[in-house]
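ok here's the first one, seq then C-alpha coordinates
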Amino acid sequence: MDIASGGKHIPVLIFGFFALVEFATRPESIFPAALTSKPSTASQHSTKCSKAENTPDPTSRDSWLFSSIALGALIYSLHERLSDPSSLVAWSWSGFSTAGPHPHTHAPLTLLVQALATLLALALSPPLSPTSSTSSVTESCTNSPLQKIPTHPLTFVVGVLSTYLLHTRTGWIGYTGGLIHAAFLTVITPSILQNAGAAARSHGAGRVFGLAWAVWIVFVFVGTFTVAYAFVPGAWSFRERTDL
Protein backbone atom coordinates (compact mmCIF):
# COMPACT_ATOMS: atom_id res chain seq x y z
CA MET A 1 0.00 0.00 0.00
CA ASP A 2 1.20 3.51 -0.82
CA ILE A 3 -0.19 7.03 -0.77
CA ALA A 4 -1.87 6.56 -4.15
CA SER A 5 -3.89 3.60 -2.86
CA GLY A 6 -5.02 5.32 0.32
CA GLY A 7 -2.07 4.80 2.63
CA LYS A 8 -1.54 7.34 5.40
CA HIS A 9 2.23 7.04 5.66
CA ILE A 10 3.04 10.72 6.18
CA PRO A 11 0.53 11.34 9.03
CA VAL A 12 1.66 8.14 10.76
CA LEU A 13 5.32 9.14 10.49
CA ILE A 14 4.49 12.59 11.89
CA PHE A 15 2.58 11.14 14.82
CA GLY A 16 5.38 8.65 15.42
CA PHE A 17 7.97 11.43 15.45
CA PHE A 18 6.04 13.48 18.02
CA ALA A 19 5.48 10.33 20.10
CA LEU A 20 9.24 9.79 20.23
CA VAL A 21 9.77 13.43 21.21
CA GLU A 22 7.19 13.11 23.99
CA PHE A 23 8.77 9.89 25.22
CA ALA A 24 12.26 11.43 25.26
CA THR A 25 11.10 14.49 27.21
CA ARG A 26 8.71 12.68 29.55
CA PRO A 27 9.38 13.35 33.26
CA GLU A 28 10.73 10.50 35.34
CA SER A 29 7.51 10.25 37.35
CA ILE A 30 4.11 11.24 35.98
CA PHE A 31 2.31 10.60 39.27
CA PRO A 32 1.80 13.18 42.04
CA ALA A 33 4.13 13.06 45.02
CA ALA A 34 1.27 11.85 47.22
CA LEU A 35 1.09 8.65 45.17
CA THR A 36 4.82 8.03 44.99
CA SER A 37 5.43 8.50 48.71
CA LYS A 38 5.15 5.47 50.95
CA PRO A 39 2.13 5.42 53.28
CA SER A 40 2.67 6.00 56.97
CA THR A 41 1.26 2.58 57.77
CA ALA A 42 4.40 0.98 56.36
CA SER A 43 6.08 1.50 59.74
CA GLN A 44 3.59 -0.91 61.28
CA HIS A 45 4.82 -3.85 59.22
CA SER A 46 6.71 -6.64 60.90
CA THR A 47 10.50 -6.63 61.04
CA LYS A 48 10.65 -9.36 58.43
CA CYS A 49 8.52 -7.45 55.93
CA SER A 50 10.45 -4.23 56.59
CA LYS A 51 13.71 -5.96 55.78
CA ALA A 52 12.19 -7.45 52.65
CA GLU A 53 11.05 -4.02 51.47
CA ASN A 54 14.58 -2.63 51.90
CA THR A 55 16.12 -5.53 49.98
CA PRO A 56 16.52 -5.00 46.23
CA ASP A 57 14.41 -7.27 44.07
CA PRO A 58 16.73 -10.09 42.97
CA THR A 59 14.67 -10.68 39.84
CA SER A 60 15.10 -7.14 38.54
CA ARG A 61 18.67 -6.79 39.79
CA ASP A 62 20.30 -10.01 38.58
CA SER A 63 17.92 -11.67 36.14
CA TRP A 64 16.60 -8.94 33.88
CA LEU A 65 17.87 -11.05 31.00
CA PHE A 66 15.55 -13.91 31.93
CA SER A 67 12.62 -11.52 32.36
CA SER A 68 13.22 -10.15 28.86
CA ILE A 69 13.53 -13.57 27.27
CA ALA A 70 10.38 -14.76 29.05
CA LEU A 71 8.46 -11.72 27.83
CA GLY A 72 9.64 -12.18 24.25
CA ALA A 73 8.74 -15.87 24.28
CA LEU A 74 5.32 -15.07 25.74
CA ILE A 75 4.60 -12.46 23.08
CA TYR A 76 5.54 -14.92 20.35
CA SER A 77 3.43 -17.70 21.89
CA LEU A 78 0.38 -15.45 22.16
CA HIS A 79 0.92 -14.13 18.64
CA GLU A 80 1.49 -17.50 16.97
CA ARG A 81 -1.07 -19.65 18.77
CA LEU A 82 -3.80 -17.36 20.10
CA SER A 83 -4.05 -14.41 17.71
CA ASP A 84 -6.47 -16.57 15.69
CA PRO A 85 -8.82 -18.74 17.80
CA SER A 86 -8.90 -21.41 15.08
CA SER A 87 -5.11 -21.99 15.10
CA LEU A 88 -5.30 -24.54 17.90
CA VAL A 89 -8.14 -26.27 16.07
CA ALA A 90 -6.02 -26.60 12.93
CA TRP A 91 -3.13 -27.99 14.96
CA SER A 92 -5.35 -30.89 16.04
CA TRP A 93 -6.01 -32.02 12.47
CA SER A 94 -4.21 -34.99 11.00
CA GLY A 95 -5.69 -34.71 7.51
CA PHE A 96 -8.94 -34.44 5.62
CA SER A 97 -11.66 -35.14 6.19
CA THR A 98 -11.52 -34.06 9.82
CA ALA A 99 -13.46 -35.85 12.54
CA GLY A 100 -12.45 -33.59 15.39
CA PRO A 101 -13.11 -29.92 16.21
CA HIS A 102 -14.09 -27.51 13.45
CA PRO A 103 -13.09 -23.82 13.29
CA HIS A 104 -16.58 -22.42 12.70
CA THR A 105 -18.22 -24.27 15.57
CA HIS A 106 -15.48 -24.96 18.11
CA ALA A 107 -12.99 -22.07 17.78
CA PRO A 108 -15.09 -19.95 20.23
CA LEU A 109 -14.08 -22.47 22.90
CA THR A 110 -10.56 -21.04 22.67
CA LEU A 111 -11.89 -17.54 23.34
CA LEU A 112 -14.02 -18.80 26.22
CA VAL A 113 -11.07 -20.55 27.86
CA GLN A 114 -8.93 -17.42 27.45
CA ALA A 115 -11.65 -15.26 29.00
CA LEU A 116 -12.02 -17.58 31.99
CA ALA A 117 -8.25 -17.80 32.40
CA THR A 118 -8.02 -14.01 32.28
CA LEU A 119 -10.54 -13.70 35.10
CA LEU A 120 -8.59 -16.29 37.07
CA ALA A 121 -5.32 -14.45 36.46
CA LEU A 122 -6.85 -11.16 37.61
CA ALA A 123 -8.25 -12.82 40.71
CA LEU A 124 -4.87 -14.31 41.57
CA SER A 125 -2.85 -11.17 40.84
CA PRO A 126 -2.07 -9.05 43.93
CA PRO A 127 -3.16 -5.39 43.88
CA LEU A 128 -0.23 -3.21 42.87
CA SER A 129 0.43 0.49 42.93
CA PRO A 130 1.17 2.02 39.51
CA THR A 131 4.52 3.20 40.90
CA SER A 132 5.45 0.01 42.71
CA SER A 133 8.93 -1.21 41.82
CA THR A 134 9.61 -3.93 44.43
CA SER A 135 6.38 -5.83 44.16
CA SER A 136 7.89 -9.29 43.88
CA VAL A 137 9.63 -8.89 47.25
CA THR A 138 6.88 -7.23 49.24
CA GLU A 139 4.28 -9.65 47.85
CA SER A 140 5.90 -12.44 49.87
CA CYS A 141 4.60 -10.76 53.04
CA THR A 142 1.04 -10.16 51.83
CA ASN A 143 0.29 -12.78 49.20
CA SER A 144 -2.00 -15.66 49.93
CA PRO A 145 -1.04 -19.16 48.72
CA LEU A 146 -3.57 -18.82 45.89
CA GLN A 147 -1.74 -15.77 44.52
CA LYS A 148 1.38 -17.89 44.05
CA ILE A 149 -0.36 -20.33 41.71
CA PRO A 150 0.73 -18.58 38.44
CA THR A 151 4.42 -18.94 39.39
CA HIS A 152 4.20 -22.35 41.06
CA PRO A 153 6.31 -25.10 39.44
CA LEU A 154 3.24 -27.31 39.06
CA THR A 155 1.67 -24.63 36.88
CA PHE A 156 4.57 -24.92 34.46
CA VAL A 157 4.34 -28.71 34.60
CA VAL A 158 0.74 -28.35 33.41
CA GLY A 159 2.01 -26.06 30.64
CA VAL A 160 4.56 -28.65 29.52
CA LEU A 161 1.98 -31.44 29.51
CA SER A 162 -0.48 -29.31 27.53
CA THR A 163 2.24 -28.59 24.98
CA TYR A 164 2.96 -32.31 24.71
CA LEU A 165 -0.70 -33.11 24.07
CA LEU A 166 -1.02 -30.30 21.54
CA HIS A 167 2.04 -31.50 19.67
CA THR A 168 1.64 -35.27 19.76
CA ARG A 169 -2.12 -35.87 19.76
CA THR A 170 -4.79 -35.20 17.18
CA GLY A 171 -8.53 -34.66 17.26
CA TRP A 172 -10.25 -33.72 20.49
CA ILE A 173 -7.38 -34.85 22.70
CA GLY A 174 -4.95 -32.57 20.88
CA TYR A 175 -7.40 -29.68 20.94
CA THR A 176 -8.02 -30.21 24.67
CA GLY A 177 -4.29 -29.93 25.20
CA GLY A 178 -4.40 -26.74 23.17
CA LEU A 179 -7.15 -25.30 25.36
CA ILE A 180 -5.14 -26.07 28.49
CA HIS A 181 -2.12 -24.48 26.81
CA ALA A 182 -4.13 -21.34 26.05
CA ALA A 183 -5.23 -21.13 29.69
CA PHE A 184 -1.64 -21.63 30.84
CA LEU A 185 -0.31 -18.79 28.66
CA THR A 186 -3.07 -16.49 29.86
CA VAL A 187 -2.58 -17.24 33.56
CA ILE A 188 1.19 -16.65 33.56
CA THR A 189 0.96 -13.40 31.58
CA PRO A 190 0.48 -11.01 34.58
CA SER A 191 3.50 -12.37 36.49
CA ILE A 192 5.74 -12.17 33.41
CA LEU A 193 4.62 -8.60 32.76
CA GLN A 194 5.24 -7.66 36.40
CA ASN A 195 8.75 -9.13 36.34
CA ALA A 196 9.53 -7.39 33.07
CA GLY A 197 8.21 -4.10 34.45
CA ALA A 198 10.35 -4.40 37.59
CA ALA A 199 13.40 -5.20 35.47
CA ALA A 200 12.67 -2.23 33.21
CA ARG A 201 12.49 0.12 36.19
CA SER A 202 15.83 -1.18 37.48
CA HIS A 203 17.78 -1.52 34.23
CA GLY A 204 15.95 0.60 31.69
CA ALA A 205 12.95 -0.04 29.49
CA GLY A 206 14.97 0.06 26.27
CA ARG A 207 17.21 -2.80 27.33
CA VAL A 208 14.46 -5.04 28.70
CA PHE A 209 11.75 -4.52 26.10
CA GLY A 210 14.24 -4.20 23.24
CA LEU A 211 15.61 -7.66 24.00
CA ALA A 212 12.07 -9.03 24.38
CA TRP A 213 11.12 -7.84 20.90
CA ALA A 214 14.44 -9.17 19.55
CA VAL A 215 13.51 -12.61 20.89
CA TRP A 216 10.11 -12.31 19.20
CA ILE A 217 11.76 -11.31 15.90
CA VAL A 218 14.13 -14.29 16.04
CA PHE A 219 11.25 -16.72 16.61
CA VAL A 220 9.17 -15.19 13.83
CA PHE A 221 12.11 -15.18 11.41
CA VAL A 222 13.17 -18.75 12.18
CA GLY A 223 9.59 -20.01 12.04
CA THR A 224 9.09 -18.37 8.64
CA PHE A 225 12.21 -19.11 6.62
CA THR A 226 12.48 -22.72 7.80
CA VAL A 227 8.98 -23.43 6.53
CA ALA A 228 9.43 -21.56 3.26
CA TYR A 229 12.75 -23.20 2.40
CA ALA A 230 13.01 -26.94 2.94
CA PHE A 231 16.75 -27.01 2.28
CA VAL A 232 17.62 -25.07 5.46
CA PRO A 233 19.59 -27.40 7.79
CA GLY A 234 17.55 -28.37 10.82
CA ALA A 235 14.44 -26.67 9.48
CA TRP A 236 12.22 -29.56 10.56
CA SER A 237 12.82 -28.79 14.24
CA PHE A 238 11.20 -25.35 13.96
CA ARG A 239 8.02 -26.33 12.13
CA GLU A 240 4.63 -26.43 13.77
CA ARG A 241 4.17 -30.18 13.51
CA THR A 242 7.47 -32.02 13.10
CA ASP A 243 5.75 -35.40 13.17
CA LEU A 244 3.63 -34.78 10.04
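and now the second one, same deal
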Amino acid sequence: MSGGLVIVGAGGFARETAQAVRAARTFGGGPELLGHLDDDPALHGRAVDGVPVLGGCELVHGLLRERPGLRVVVCVGSPRDYAVRARLVRRFGLPDQCYATVVHPTAAVSASSSVGPGSVLLAHCVLTAAVRVGAHVAVMPQAVLTHDDEVGDFATVASGVRLGGGVRLERGAYVGAGALVREYAVVGAWSLVGMGATVLGDVPPGEVWIGGPARRLRPAGSAALEELRRDAALSVTTAEESRR
Protein backbone atom coordinates (compact mmCIF):
# COMPACT_ATOMS: atom_id res chain seq x y z
CA MET A 1 0.00 0.00 0.00
CA SER A 2 1.27 3.50 -0.78
CA GLY A 3 0.35 7.16 -0.91
CA GLY A 4 -2.51 8.95 0.75
CA LEU A 5 -2.79 11.70 3.34
CA VAL A 6 -3.16 11.69 7.11
CA ILE A 7 -4.35 14.77 9.01
CA VAL A 8 -2.92 15.27 12.49
CA GLY A 9 -5.70 16.62 14.69
CA ALA A 10 -9.45 16.08 14.63
CA GLY A 11 -10.75 19.48 15.76
CA GLY A 12 -12.24 22.33 13.77
CA PHE A 13 -9.18 23.21 11.68
CA ALA A 14 -8.50 19.54 10.91
CA ARG A 15 -12.11 18.99 9.87
CA GLU A 16 -11.98 22.03 7.58
CA THR A 17 -8.80 20.71 6.02
CA ALA A 18 -10.45 17.33 5.44
CA GLN A 19 -13.22 19.07 3.51
CA ALA A 20 -10.63 20.95 1.44
CA VAL A 21 -8.97 17.62 0.57
CA ARG A 22 -12.31 16.13 -0.41
CA ALA A 23 -13.13 19.19 -2.54
CA ALA A 24 -9.77 18.89 -4.33
CA ARG A 25 -10.47 15.23 -5.13
CA THR A 26 -13.87 16.18 -6.50
CA PHE A 27 -12.07 18.45 -8.95
CA GLY A 28 -9.76 15.59 -9.92
CA GLY A 29 -6.69 16.29 -7.82
CA GLY A 30 -5.21 15.62 -4.42
CA PRO A 31 -4.41 12.51 -2.41
CA GLU A 32 -6.76 10.01 -0.82
CA LEU A 33 -7.60 11.02 2.75
CA LEU A 34 -6.92 8.04 5.01
CA GLY A 35 -7.99 9.57 8.31
CA HIS A 36 -7.08 11.65 11.33
CA LEU A 37 -4.55 11.11 14.11
CA ASP A 38 -5.41 12.64 17.46
CA ASP A 39 -4.13 12.18 21.00
CA ASP A 40 -7.64 12.20 22.51
CA PRO A 41 -8.37 8.51 23.27
CA ALA A 42 -12.11 9.21 23.26
CA LEU A 43 -11.92 9.85 19.51
CA HIS A 44 -10.01 6.69 18.57
CA GLY A 45 -12.04 4.36 16.40
CA ARG A 46 -14.68 6.99 15.77
CA ALA A 47 -15.44 8.95 12.61
CA VAL A 48 -15.39 12.75 12.44
CA ASP A 49 -17.53 14.08 9.59
CA GLY A 50 -17.22 10.65 8.03
CA VAL A 51 -13.42 10.51 8.32
CA PRO A 52 -12.00 7.85 10.69
CA VAL A 53 -9.75 8.71 13.62
CA LEU A 54 -7.06 6.08 13.24
CA GLY A 55 -5.45 6.54 16.65
CA GLY A 56 -2.92 8.72 18.42
CA CYS A 57 -0.18 10.86 16.91
CA GLU A 58 2.43 8.24 17.85
CA LEU A 59 1.22 6.19 14.85
CA VAL A 60 2.61 8.65 12.32
CA HIS A 61 6.05 7.05 11.90
CA GLY A 62 4.64 3.54 11.51
CA LEU A 63 2.18 4.70 8.87
CA LEU A 64 4.97 6.40 6.95
CA ARG A 65 6.97 3.14 6.97
CA GLU A 66 3.97 1.08 5.87
CA ARG A 67 2.83 3.41 3.09
CA PRO A 68 5.60 4.82 0.87
CA GLY A 69 4.55 8.20 -0.45
CA LEU A 70 2.19 8.91 2.45
CA ARG A 71 1.98 12.60 3.32
CA VAL A 72 1.08 14.29 6.61
CA VAL A 73 -0.42 17.67 7.44
CA VAL A 74 -0.61 19.00 11.02
CA CYS A 75 -3.90 20.84 11.60
CA VAL A 76 -4.04 21.92 15.22
CA GLY A 77 -3.99 25.22 17.06
CA SER A 78 -6.28 27.94 18.38
CA PRO A 79 -5.88 31.38 19.98
CA ARG A 80 -5.58 29.60 23.32
CA ASP A 81 -2.49 27.66 22.14
CA TYR A 82 -1.27 28.62 18.71
CA ALA A 83 2.19 27.15 19.36
CA VAL A 84 0.97 23.55 19.43
CA ARG A 85 1.56 23.05 15.70
CA ALA A 86 5.25 23.84 16.14
CA ARG A 87 5.52 21.48 19.10
CA LEU A 88 4.01 18.59 17.16
CA VAL A 89 6.18 19.14 14.10
CA ARG A 90 9.23 19.20 16.36
CA ARG A 91 8.04 16.04 18.11
CA PHE A 92 7.69 14.18 14.80
CA GLY A 93 11.09 15.24 13.46
CA LEU A 94 10.06 14.50 9.87
CA PRO A 95 11.73 15.89 6.75
CA ASP A 96 9.83 18.46 4.71
CA GLN A 97 9.05 15.96 1.96
CA CYS A 98 6.78 14.03 4.34
CA TYR A 99 4.41 16.99 4.60
CA ALA A 100 1.58 17.79 2.21
CA THR A 101 0.48 21.26 1.14
CA VAL A 102 -3.32 21.49 1.02
CA VAL A 103 -4.98 24.15 -1.15
CA HIS A 104 -8.77 24.33 -1.47
CA PRO A 105 -9.76 24.42 -5.15
CA THR A 106 -11.52 27.78 -4.67
CA ALA A 107 -8.39 29.47 -3.30
CA ALA A 108 -6.81 31.99 -5.69
CA VAL A 109 -3.03 31.60 -5.63
CA SER A 110 -1.07 33.66 -8.15
CA ALA A 111 1.67 32.09 -10.22
CA SER A 112 4.22 34.39 -8.57
CA SER A 113 3.30 33.26 -5.04
CA SER A 114 4.70 30.29 -3.13
CA VAL A 115 3.38 28.07 -0.34
CA GLY A 116 5.59 25.92 1.90
CA PRO A 117 5.26 22.29 3.00
CA GLY A 118 2.63 21.47 5.60
CA SER A 119 0.65 24.65 4.93
CA VAL A 120 -3.12 24.80 4.40
CA LEU A 121 -5.06 27.34 2.34
CA LEU A 122 -8.81 27.06 2.90
CA ALA A 123 -11.77 28.12 0.76
CA HIS A 124 -11.78 31.44 -1.09
CA CYS A 125 -8.52 32.77 0.33
CA VAL A 126 -6.48 34.95 -2.03
CA LEU A 127 -2.74 35.36 -2.61
CA THR A 128 -2.47 38.17 -5.14
CA ALA A 129 1.15 38.63 -6.27
CA ALA A 130 4.55 37.48 -5.02
CA VAL A 131 3.19 36.33 -1.66
CA ARG A 132 5.49 33.99 0.24
CA VAL A 133 3.84 31.60 2.69
CA GLY A 134 6.18 29.50 4.81
CA ALA A 135 5.85 25.98 6.21
CA HIS A 136 3.00 24.76 8.43
CA VAL A 137 0.99 27.96 7.96
CA ALA A 138 -2.80 28.04 8.34
CA VAL A 139 -4.67 30.45 6.04
CA MET A 140 -8.36 30.36 6.86
CA PRO A 141 -11.35 31.02 4.56
CA GLN A 142 -11.63 34.36 2.75
CA ALA A 143 -8.33 35.75 3.99
CA VAL A 144 -6.66 38.12 1.51
CA LEU A 145 -2.86 38.35 1.30
CA THR A 146 -1.73 41.05 -1.11
CA HIS A 147 1.44 41.80 -3.05
CA ASP A 148 4.78 40.95 -1.48
CA ASP A 149 3.39 39.73 1.84
CA GLU A 150 5.60 37.31 3.76
CA VAL A 151 4.10 34.80 6.18
CA GLY A 152 6.55 32.96 8.42
CA ASP A 153 6.51 29.30 9.42
CA PHE A 154 3.73 28.24 11.84
CA ALA A 155 1.82 31.51 11.43
CA THR A 156 -1.99 31.58 11.41
CA VAL A 157 -4.10 33.92 9.28
CA ALA A 158 -7.68 33.58 10.50
CA SER A 159 -10.89 33.96 8.50
CA GLY A 160 -11.51 37.29 6.81
CA VAL A 161 -8.09 38.80 7.57
CA ARG A 162 -6.85 41.48 5.16
CA LEU A 163 -3.11 42.07 4.84
CA GLY A 164 -1.93 45.17 3.01
CA GLY A 165 0.98 44.94 0.59
CA GLY A 166 4.41 44.18 1.95
CA VAL A 167 3.20 42.97 5.35
CA ARG A 168 5.45 40.54 7.20
CA LEU A 169 4.05 38.03 9.67
CA GLU A 170 6.99 36.54 11.50
CA ARG A 171 7.30 32.95 12.68
CA GLY A 172 4.31 31.74 14.70
CA ALA A 173 2.34 35.00 14.52
CA TYR A 174 -1.44 34.68 14.89
CA VAL A 175 -3.75 37.22 13.24
CA GLY A 176 -7.32 36.85 14.45
CA ALA A 177 -10.51 36.78 12.39
CA GLY A 178 -11.37 39.96 10.52
CA ALA A 179 -8.21 41.83 11.47
CA LEU A 180 -6.73 44.43 9.14
CA VAL A 181 -2.97 44.95 8.87
CA ARG A 182 -1.64 48.10 7.22
CA GLU A 183 0.81 47.84 4.33
CA TYR A 184 4.43 47.12 5.27
CA ALA A 185 3.63 46.51 8.95
CA VAL A 186 5.39 43.69 10.78
CA VAL A 187 3.67 41.37 13.25
CA GLY A 188 6.45 39.95 15.42
CA ALA A 189 7.18 36.31 16.08
CA TRP A 190 4.66 34.48 18.26
CA SER A 191 2.53 37.60 18.75
CA LEU A 192 -1.27 37.50 18.58
CA VAL A 193 -3.46 40.14 16.96
CA GLY A 194 -7.01 39.96 18.24
CA MET A 195 -10.07 39.50 16.05
CA GLY A 196 -11.26 42.65 14.34
CA ALA A 197 -8.12 44.62 15.22
CA THR A 198 -6.70 47.34 12.96
CA VAL A 199 -2.92 47.19 12.94
CA LEU A 200 -1.36 50.48 11.79
CA GLY A 201 2.26 49.86 12.83
CA ASP A 202 4.67 47.15 13.88
CA VAL A 203 3.74 44.66 16.61
CA PRO A 204 6.77 43.51 18.66
CA PRO A 205 7.43 39.79 19.14
CA GLY A 206 5.67 37.89 21.92
CA GLU A 207 2.80 40.30 22.58
CA VAL A 208 -1.02 40.41 22.32
CA TRP A 209 -2.51 43.44 20.57
CA ILE A 210 -6.22 44.27 20.22
CA GLY A 211 -8.58 47.02 19.09
CA GLY A 212 -8.63 49.76 16.51
CA PRO A 213 -6.12 51.15 16.21
CA ALA A 214 -4.47 48.10 17.73
CA ARG A 215 -2.64 48.53 21.04
CA ARG A 216 -0.74 46.27 23.38
CA LEU A 217 -2.86 44.30 25.83
CA ARG A 218 -0.35 41.98 27.52
CA PRO A 219 2.48 39.53 26.83
CA ALA A 220 1.66 36.47 24.77
CA GLY A 221 0.80 33.23 26.56
CA SER A 222 3.40 30.98 28.10
CA ALA A 223 3.45 28.47 25.22
CA ALA A 224 4.10 31.20 22.64
CA LEU A 225 6.77 32.82 24.80
CA GLU A 226 8.49 29.46 25.22
CA GLU A 227 8.67 29.11 21.42
CA LEU A 228 10.10 32.63 21.21
CA ARG A 229 12.81 31.69 23.71
CA ARG A 230 13.58 28.46 21.84
CA ASP A 231 13.91 30.34 18.56
CA ALA A 232 16.24 32.91 20.14
CA ALA A 233 18.43 30.20 21.67
CA LEU A 234 18.60 28.34 18.35
CA SER A 235 19.57 31.55 16.57
CA VAL A 236 22.44 32.12 19.01
CA THR A 237 23.65 28.53 18.63
CA THR A 238 23.52 28.75 14.84
CA ALA A 239 25.44 32.03 14.86
CA GLU A 240 28.14 30.56 17.13
CA GLU A 241 28.51 27.48 14.93
CA SER A 242 28.84 29.61 11.80
CA ARG A 243 31.78 31.48 13.37
CA ARG A 244 33.72 28.30 14.11
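notes on #2: The CA atoms of residues 3 and 70 lie 4 Å apart. The chain has a mean pLDDT of 95.
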